[in-house]
Design brief:
This protein is an alpha/beta fold. Helix content is 38%, strand content 21%. The protein is built from 15 helices and 22 strands. The strands form six sheets. The protein has a seven-stranded mixed sheet with strand order 14-15-16-13-12-18-19, with helices on both faces. A six-stranded mixed sheet has the order 9-8-7-10-11-21, with helices on both faces. The site of nicotinamide-adenine-dinucleotide (NAD) has 30 residues, from helix 7 and helix 8. The site of nicotinamide-adenine-dinucleotide has 30 residues, from helix 7 and helix 8.
Length: 491
């Protein structure tokens, strides 16, 4: 995982993909900063209102006029597989591009993001000729059946925290199911997905099926969702924006929406966990990976009283061992925060929680990175209660609150005491307790004796409560890109 020189990476001008071509946006330019050192990376040419319209119209035309939705599904599968192969072969370009423009370190981008994006595409490609309709049980003088059809144009709106991976989650199932897509990446991490789209075109994806429009939410995201030719919206981002998008879809449709939103996920450690030191490592990683800027970050530790001191001290050691650094250095183990305002927001929540009586065991302030980027120290907050802001709000930084419990029931109640319901981790050596947790916890995903995903695009992911509606990944995400039509035939 060699380090690299960031100034060698220069994204090409013309960051919108419309009708299969790179197009220079006619909207206002936005300066994009490199998170690691807050230096300007490039000026982003954003799409004008006309260009957003054109991207959607081109997508609608490609959906109607290309054979993408009508060919043998295996033909789509072949193109998508070729795309995945090209992505993997492009590692030396894509990984540094992702690392320099986002919070992902070069080690992570090389070992995971690029490979995982390619595998996600392969996974969804496989469904193309395996998911169809159904035949109903009817009387013998009839035939009742359902067939599946793609929606048409799907708008995909993505966040900044894992730019390639999030694009893969949205675009791969939509295309595999026969739709056309218009993707709006985050204005903070806009460049690596342009390369992704170019590789799709090189793989043989008909022009117009995968478009990218660049810009912020107000100027580009909102009109894209409201466009009359957009039939469905799939969004990943904050709960606040998800609500605004749902409203836009209600006012201009109603259109179906998939919303993958924020979280405040608990990690429950019981005294009977088989290896407490290993468990502490899992807990620490679950909140420091990508500096906590992960939707499923395990941000609330709930630990059984008798092992609390031991677990907390092992987590503190791990927090203190992390080395902040620029994403392009191979030895960096703590990512930058995406921006200085976001680091200020994290610090504000920590300071107010401290002022309200919490104790900071380690961290609690900005980390001095070797560059001018925004870094935040991995922070352990003890002595917190359900009322504290750090326990209630999604922080999206490396901040772990600690609450202790005596009995299992109390642990489950604390875990569920949140408006969010994205994920939860349970560490126990007792199989029955793990299964009780699975039933009791209000979370879209429950991990037992592990935390987070590795290659589990095979399983659906999505949240309950304020964490969202619908699923990404797994068969459910593929099916969410299809609508079903019912037929009843009288003989
Ligand atoms: P954000 O909501 O600020 O922005 C997400 C995207 O929405 C961006 O592309 C933005 O430009 C766009 N946008 C903003 N306003 C819009 C509007 N009115 N209409 C249309 N688009 C609009 O989120 P973020 O800060 O980029 O990402 C962090 C958030 O994403 C966190 O809350 C995190 O938990 C969440 N997230 C969730 C998952 C999941 O699977 N549940 C995965 C990753 C991130």
């Amino acid at each position: 995982m060699a380090s690299f020189t960031p100034d060698q990476i220069i994204p090409t001008h013309g960051s919108n993909i419309i009708g299969g071509c790179r197009v220079v946006g006619q909207g206002p330019a936005l300066t994009v900063l490199r998170p690691s050192d807050a230096k300007p990376f490039a000026d982003l040419d954003t799409a004008s209102a006309d260009q957003v319209d054109r991207a959607v119209e081109d997508a609608a035309r490609a959906f109607k006029q290309s054979d993408w939705a009508r060919v043998e599904p295996r033909q789509r599968m072949k193109v998508l597989r070729r795309w995945a192969d090209l992505i993997e072969a492009d590692m030396d370009v894509l990984a540094p591009l992702e690392a320099v423009g986002s919070t992902r370190t070069i080690a992570e981008a090389r070992a995971w993001d690029v490979w995982y994006t390619a595998e996600t595409i392969r996974f969804f490609a496989e469904f193309a000729d395996k998911v169809g309709g159904d035949v109903a049980a009817t009387s013998h003088d009839k035939l009742g059946l359902t067939i599946t059809e793609p929606y048409g144009v799907i708008a995909a709106i993505a966040p900044w925290n894992l730019p390639l991976v999030m694009a893969g989650w949205k675009v791969a199932p939509a295309l595999a199911a026969g739709n056309a897509v218009v993707l709006k990446p985050s204005e903070m991490t806009p460049f690596s997905v342009v390369r992704l789209a170019e590789l799709a075109i090189e793989a043989g994806l008909p022009p117009g099926l995968f478009n990218i429009v660049q810009g912020d939410g107000r100027q580009v995201g909102d009109p894209l969702c409201r466009h009359p030719l957009v039939s469905k919206v799939t969004f990943t981002g904050s709960t606040r924006t998800g609500i605004a998008i749902m409203q836009a879809c209600a006012e201009t449709g109603p259109k179906p929406v998939t919303l993958e939103l924020g979280g405040k996920s608990p990690q429950l450690v019981f005294a009977d966990a088989s290896d407490l030191d290993k468990t502490a490592g899992i807990v620490a990683r679950a909140i420091t990976l990508n500096a906590g800027q992960v939707c499923v970050a395990g941000s609330r530790l709930l630990v059984q009283e008798q092992v609390a001191d031991r677990v907390i001290s092992a987590i503190r050691d791990r927090f203190q061992a992390l080395r902040p650094g620029p994403t392009w250095e191979a030895g960096t183990s703590l990512s930058p925060i995406i921006s200085h305002p976001q680091a200020d927001r994290i610090d504000g929540i920590v300071s107010r929680t401290k002022a309200a009586g919490a104790e900071v065991l380690t961290g609690g302030g900005r980390a001095s990175g070797p560059q001018d980027g925004a870094f935040y120290q991995p922070t352990l907050l003890v002595g917190v209660t359900r009322e504290h802001e750090a326990v209630r709000e999604e922080i999206f930084g490396p901040v772990l609150t600690v609450q202790t419990f005596r009995e299992e029931e109390e642990a489950f109640a604390l875990a569920n005491d949140s408006g969010f319901g994205l994920a939860a981790g349970v560490h126990t050596g007792d199989v029955s307790r793990a299964l009780r947790a699975l039933r009791a916890l209000e979370a879209g995903t429950v991990w037992v004796n592990r935390y987070g995903r590795s290659n589990d695009f095979i399983l659906p992911t999505g949240g309950f409560k304020k964490s969202g509606i619908g699923k990404d990944l797994g068969r459910e995400a593929y099916e969410a890109n299809l609508k079903s039509k019912t037929m009843l035939i009288e003989f």
